[in-house]
Amino acid sequence: MKRSEFIKNTGLGAGSILAGGSVLSFLAACNKNNMMNGGGMNMGGQPVPVTEGNFSRLLPIPSVVTNNASLAAQATAANVNGSNISALGYQPNGILGPTIRLNSGNVANISFQNNLSEKSNIHWHGLKIPANMDGHPEAIINPGSSFNYQFTVNQRAALCWYHPHPNGATARQAFQGLAGLFIINDAEEAALNLPSGNYEIPLVIQDKRLTSTGITYNPSIMEVMTGYMGESILANGEASPFTEVATRFYRLRILNGSNARIYNLALSNNADLIIIGNDGGLLKNPSAVKNILLAPGERSDVLVNFAGLSIGTEVFLESRMFDHGGSAQGKQGFKIIKFKVTQTVSDGFTVPVILSSFTAIPASVASRTRDFVLNVMQMNSGMNMTGMHQINGKSYDKNRVDETISANATEIWAFDNSQGDEPHPIHLHGVHFQVLERTGGRGQLTASEKSGWKDTVLLLPQEKIKLIIPFATLSGVFVFHCHNLEHEDDGMMLQYQLN
Ligand code: C2O
Ligand code: CU
Ligand code: CU
Description:
CATH architecture of the domain at 197-343: Sandwich
Helix content: under 10%
Number of helices: 8
CATH topology of the domain at 197-343: Immunoglobulin-like
Bound molecules: CU-O-CU linkage, copper (II) ion
Strand content: 35-45%
Radius of gyration: 22 Å
Number of strands: 32
Oligomer: single chain
Structural class: mainly beta
């Protein structure tokens, strides 16, 4: 990002840089050691405390389209938290676009109209599709123009999603409302007879900074460092909502669609969260856990059982405090959505023991290993504010291809956050990968990283991760980046070319 863009995005005008002696000395004092841990500096880097609502508004469920979707990015009104605010949407009246739901093997045909006053595009996060349909940051659609996204869905059942990806403006456009779900179904999944219809609940969890008239997006320098977070936690576009449930199993399809906030999901009654799937679809076997740490861009497919609860019982999906989240994450617990038991039913569902066929790829089949060091805070002088977040010492450059890979190669990519003091959810376009190992920090794989496919993986401070990636035959240039969208827009993104 150019310095002028950075200043614009941080809301710091040139006047405030030049006139504000304190800003200059703050910048001069920036270095890796004292910025995050040092005494008393706060330019908005402390987390905005979450304000819970009263869980009295109904959880909205995005409408579903099964083919030929039309999405029109636009400034629109949205009713959030009881106020009619202005936001961005892919359809009139409300943030979040429709859920696009297709069977594997079908062709997606999505017309996109850009009615914003700025460039935009759509990236299909989690979809393995050709580079020219992927929503690369330079493949933009100008204001007033349209584009037809067309591709064959050629992958297993999974919860994917879509959001804008124009270089330098991804974070703001997504935060102001542009996002939606993309669900792929297939025969392997259908054979499991998982809870469906009203018993399959999509949950897009996002934090927003709400005013009575809109969604504020003006990150300070410190908020570019930590990522931009909001005081209001929305599920499916509504703050602190509730939904009524019956005494049976439900399938929750959860996306963390936040720019930066990581959630440590748990149920308030300490009941199990039974993980059955992740970014890339169903796991081999279910795994019952009490907490799921879900980073921006990650998805979790979870069964919860309300059987045995009496009418009137309230159970919250909440986020609990967690350790090693860096300077701004995991410091507060809060409730996200209320489930209110209103109906007693009998439920014959039992959790399948085997969910899907999954074969772990042994590290030995990889043809090579590439190493990526996550670097932060390369400010040499107070005025050099670009690219504070880098990979291998490099910021995103549209004119530079960073890695060249042969089609159908299987490679190990190792990401190293051992020197870092902030979390980085790393996301690769165009592929799904398996996670081989995590060393440092948590020192192990999570339940959703074992025996499943991922496209986004979280590195907390001190952690190193090894991924094994079968690259497809898709050719072209794809990006990979940190999915903390402030980091991504700050340049923590590189390009790989598949030949
Ligand atoms: Cu969901 Cu390149 O991102
Ligand atoms: Cu993506
Ligand atoms: Cu990051």
